[in-house]
Specification:
- It is a single chain.
- With 198 residues, the chain is mainly alpha-helical.
- The chain has 2 domains: 38 residues, no CATH class; 113 residues, no CATH class.
- It is built from 8 helices and no strands.
- The mean pLDDT is 80.
Length: 198
């Protein structure tokens, strides 16, 4: 047993398997030095790997699958950045429109948290709506996607057992809504701290 653990083949397999994780950790540490924290690296890696397998099988070419995998990871990261940017800008516009109300609230003695609360709630509501729309689309398209995979990739249909849409959404709906609330809340927290001088 110990001889197998210390063999060069075992170390080679470890290095090969952990290289993508090490690259993601390195990117996260470099980004955190500039003040950007990306908590979605594992999700981006998982979705990119899924798209890579599907695209490689669909095209029959590993290079095309690799290129489409990189594009899928970039698109997922870009969508996350765009969602935080849009929520942040929406809250910033709300703050600038309500400058007079904020000044009046300060004059009558409102606390900082009381002034920030409507903007945090606004960001969370935008996040919920932003996650409900794709979840609703996925709910109606899920059975069609499963049928497509079963027809195009027959060997996958034999290996994998796809969940029913109701069973899938029992877990996916709360997670998706929580992610929407979290992205909206954090986007509005940073904006409220930057634009509200309270």
């Amino acid at each position: 047993m110990l001889q197998n653990l210390l063999s060069p083949d075992f170390f080679n397999a470890i290095l090969r398997a952990t290289t993508p994780i090490l690259f993601a950790a390195l990117a996260s540490s470099v980004a955190s030095k500039s003040g950007i924290t990306n908590m979605a690296l594992e999700g981006i890696m998982l979705f990119s790997a899924l798209f890579g397998v599907i695209f490689s099988a669909a095209t029959g070419n590993w290079a095309a699958g690799l290129l489409l995998t990189m594009a899928a990871g970039g698109i997922i990261g870009l969508l996350l950045a765009v969602s935080v940017f849009l929520i942040s800008n929406t809250v910033a516009i709300g703050i600038s429109v309500r400058r007079e109300e904020i000044a009046i609230m300060r004059l009558i003695g409102a606390t900082n948290s009381f002034i920030k609360a409507p903007f945090l709630i606004e960001g969370a509501v935008i996040g919920v709506v932003g996650s409900a729309i794709p979840l609703g689309a996925l709910y109606y398209l899920y059975n069609r996607m499963v049928l497509y995979v079963a027809v195009k990739f027959g060997m996958l249909a034999e290996i994998l057992k796809f969940l029913q849409v109701n069973e899938l959404f029992r877990t996916l709906l709360p997670i998706g809504m929580a992610l929407g609330i979290g992205i909206g809340f954090f986007g509005s927290v940073f904006t409220a701290q930057r634009h509200l001088k309270v």
